[in-house]
Amino acid sequence: MNDLLERLRSRGRGWRMTSQRRVVVETLMGEHVHLTADEVHARAARRLPEISRATVYSTLGELVLLGEVLEVSAQGRAKRYDPNAGHAHHHLVCSGCGLIRDVYPVGDPVAGLPDEQRFGFSVSAVEIVYRGLCPTCAPAPRPAPPSGPPTHR
What we know:
Structural class: alpha+beta
Strand order of the largest sheet: 1-3-2
CATH topology: Arc Repressor Mutant, subunit A
CATH superfamily: Winged helix-like DNA-binding domain superfamily/Winged helix DNA-binding domain
Largest sheet: 3 strands, antiparallel
Order of helices and strands: HHEHHEEEEE
Number of strands: 6
Strand content: 5-15%
CATH class: Mainly Alpha
Oligomer: single chain
């Protein structure tokens, strides 16, 4: 389970935890998936029927501005929200269905960028998105042709 709720509690009085905000935060927790704002609203409304779509959108926007939730774009699809902002990671995005999975880098991606390629920038964050097809969307592999000389009968 991600630690989003704990991170928000530790902010003290900087962010007031209303019942609506709590439901949005709890919706983002648990099984780690990257939900759209509409998916967050639908799940939150099951727990708190009076929650409005506008409240969900504004809460997600605040969480992104606070740096507690990442906004992930998947080319031409609705933005998705990732509560795993407390841990450095990248994303694998399926170009077919839009499925998003977290992947964890080996080493420091900032250190891997040589000074001469930084053009004087002071790099504070790195976002890497790997795009391809998930196993469900990828075409089935073709069977390998038989090896060896052809047999004639």
